[in-house]
Amino acid sequence: MRAASEISLxxxxxxxTTTSSAIPVDYSERRVTTTGASSTSRRQLxxxxxxxxxxxxxxxxxxxxxxxxxxADGESYYASFPDLAVIxxxxxxxxxxxxxxxxxRNLIASRVGQLAFDFRxxxxxxxxxxLKRREPPPLAAFMDPAPVNTTSSAEELFHAASxxxxxxxxxxxEASRAYRRALDVDPYLVPALINLANxxxxxxxxxxxxxxxxxxxxxxxDVFEAHFNLGNIFHDLGRYLDAQARYRDALQxxxxxxxxxxxxxxxxxxxxxxxxxxxxxxxxxxxxxxxEWVGLAKEFSD
Length: 302
What we know:
Layout lengths: L8 H8 L23 E2 H7 L5 H9 L6 E2 L5 E3 L2 H15 L4 H12 L39 H14 L7 H14 L4 H13 L3 H14 L4 H13 L3 H14 L4 H13 L3 H14 L6 H8 L1
Antiparallel strand pairs: 1-3, 2-3
Helix pairs in contact: 1-5, 4-5, 6-7, 7-8, 8-9, 9-10, 10-11, 11-12, 12-13, 13-14
């Protein structure tokens, strides 16, 4: 199901708040100066701007409004005028009684036409953990035939690849080769297609990952992992309506998958469809009450 027609993000943000108009991002920050290697730590910022909380900084970073630099001591530092200006303006607006949701939406709206708005996908791609053997689909008649009596060896190779595919960078190449060997034996092994695509996606090899997810969907349209992961790719490409369609497909197959609700809400917000997004912000809260972004979901679901 396709989302409603996309409208102007600036118009929607202006209508969504009643306390004030969009906050112009002022890059002429003068109260905090940074020269050379100078920078301001997260702790120092929180001490200076008392209306801004640590979770507010995380949410502004998630939406791409600020970009702190992590250091070896584990602390984040802010050394750019744009970051400091955004934080200062958020602090002032919060001090005037504006809700953080309204502050965030206004800052997002004010950025349109200045910098690319980037809500970064950071969730791990959905991985297929259990191998389910199926008969070759009807489409298989038009593809290269799979070797006969190779089911066992393909499954063994898939399981070996899954063991190697443990998130350790040292094992990535070997896991990739094992998935490819499994697919050489059985080109219709959809779990291997999806997990191999995940490896490409983690390497920012978007075209390769997209092709593999799309092949997996062509072979087995009811595998939700492929739809969800393809939605992430379309989000990365700025194809928000396509991303919404894939997230909706994933949710039809697995309505309890919290991340699909979360990122569908994100793409709806980015398309200016805040009212439609509320349902999915709330679903994320219910499904992931201890999730990393539950606070953000609460802010946007009101």
